[in-house]
Amino acid sequence: MSYKIKELYYTLQGEGAHTGRPAVFCRFTGCNLWTGREEDRHKAICQFCDTDFWGMDGVNGGQYTAEALVEKAISLWGDTSQGRPYVVCTGGEPLLQLDEILIEAFHRAGFEVGVETNGTQAAPAGLDWICVSPKAGAPLVLTKGDELKLVFPQPAAMPALFEEMDFANFYIQPMDGPAVQENTRAAIDFCLKNPKWRLSIQTHKLLNIP
Question: Does residue 202 fall inside a structural domain?
């Protein structure tokens, strides 16, 4: 079994409950809601995606076996005695590729394994942290986990549709783009009126880090 990786790098988690936590980000290629090509964006299910996940030409991108991928992640983390190493499997849609074999390989190396997913695929066993970011127009299969992070606003995916689901943490994240200031203000106002939800902002963009 091999895995197609867009990029693999060490940085700080910029969003959600683990904001500020050092992590190796493992970005898988491919998504079931958009091809990743700009010429196809207008017909994508998710048209606001701000991530380049097409191809394998990013930093440390390529096709890896589980063992090789874990070895590369260890080399990026460095001294594993300094806190438990953490890997975030993201995309694209990581659950199109991530499986129990790779999760177990990360665990054997001492990694805690998190995933950031659109929730349209079932999750393999063994994940330590599941963050679901629902997208309007996409069927939600994964309805429980550690964190639900909703890009806001999505008129066909408003918070009320998700707040009774079995997640430990609920986050509202302003949609980036030309209206980001307006969306941020709306997200703040929503969280103040609905304190079950917390605000998540993309701090990595503010800090200009990956």
Answer: no
State yes or no: is 191 an active-site residue. Answer: no
Residue 72 domain flag: yes
- pLDDT per residue as tens digits for the range 110-144: 999 999 999 999 999 999 999 999 999 999 999 99
Catalytic residue among 26, 49, 89, 191: 49
Q: For residue 77, tell me if it sits in a domain.
A: yes
Query: Catalytic pick from 51, 57, 100, 182?
Result: 51
* Inside any domain, residue 162: no
Q: One of 38, 40, 50, 57 is an active-site residue; which one?
A: 50
Assess whether 25 carries a catalytic annotation.
yes
Would you say residue 167 has pLDDT above 90?
A: yes
Does residue 31 register a pLDDT over 90? Answer: yes
DSSP 135-198: -TTS-----EEEEEEEEE--TTS-GGGTTTSEEEEEEEEEPPSTTHHHHHHHHHHHHHH-TTSE
In the predicted structure, residue 147 carries a pLDDT above the cut 90: yes
What is the tally of structural domains in the chain? 1
* Candidate list 7, 15, 18, 25, residue with the active-site label: 25
